[in-house]
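FIELD: query
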Amino acid sequence: GAGQAGTPLAKKLAEAGMKTAIIEKRMVGGTCIIDGCTPTKTMIASARAAFQARNADKLGVIIPDVKVDLKKIIKRKNEIVDLFQASAEKGIKGTNGLTLFLGNASFTAAKTLKVEMMDGKTENLSADLIFINTGAKTIIPDIKGLKEVDYLTSTSILDIDEVPEHLIIIGGNYIGLEFGQMFARFGSKITILEKATHVLAREDQEITDEICKILANEKINVLTSVKIEEVRKTKNGLAVEIKDKSGSRKINCSHILVAAGRKAQTDELGLSYAGIKKDEAGHVVVNEKLETNIKGIYALGDVKGGPAFTHIAYNDYTIVYRNLVEKTKLSTKDRPVPYCMFTDPQLARIGISENEA
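FIELD: result
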């Protein structure tokens, strides 16, 4: 995987004199550049500009008739993503001793990989050191009727060509809230459905209460303790049957975004052929040095579980590289973890919450 841990690690190992291969099944850049940080923060900046323009009259600046051109916003986003992605790929190709394989890799034995290349060829690679940085993908919950409708994910919504009239978001964690506020500012009616008793499960109740007040001020409807009974098509769009504290009811909408969490991309890796252990959620199990139960095989970033942030993946790379090449004894033990969410205002903290304490 050529993500935010795999790419810098591969370059540094090659620069240290190791013959190195990096394998990517989609495109260089990983979630951050292609589907996450870069495109979403680019679009959030456009949404904030629209919000400020609409509210500028409070500062004595009158801007009548603020319009959002989503096609232009998407075009700008794509240009920035393409720039970042091309730079990341150029960095790999320009590193001596590093070879990029574009294809799907899976283990055939503990230290052997088969790569089914995009061009139809097959390559077999073996190495003393192997690093798994395959990331995560959207979880599609088992909801009656959901797979029969054209739902959106955090990837597909980045290329939508019209502002949804009414967007229902399944999931009230940071992905759902960021997209909810963004599209509310673009002009959508937003309803967020969360099955837990409050949104942002990792945060203390008073924090989530304050976030919900901010969202409510922007007319974003957040419903908690919700069970989604069924999703179905209607003549004018979609209908979501829910059950919550007030009983059963139907909510009509034009679009549905699934943001109910992410799962590790390990299903197609053939981990069992290498004897690599996974946990019940499918994450690769690692120790404090990020090594799996098989010596010489490591896992970095989202695939190993824990907070799914770029800065965690990058720190994973620095730990592994320094331990292997610089012979340090770094570990993830007691690593202070910064959490962040790019709503407006942004939410950030480091360390444990009051609940965790």
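FIELD: remark
The helical segments are 6-15, 30-34, 37-54, 70-93, 174-186, 205-217, 271-274, 310-325.
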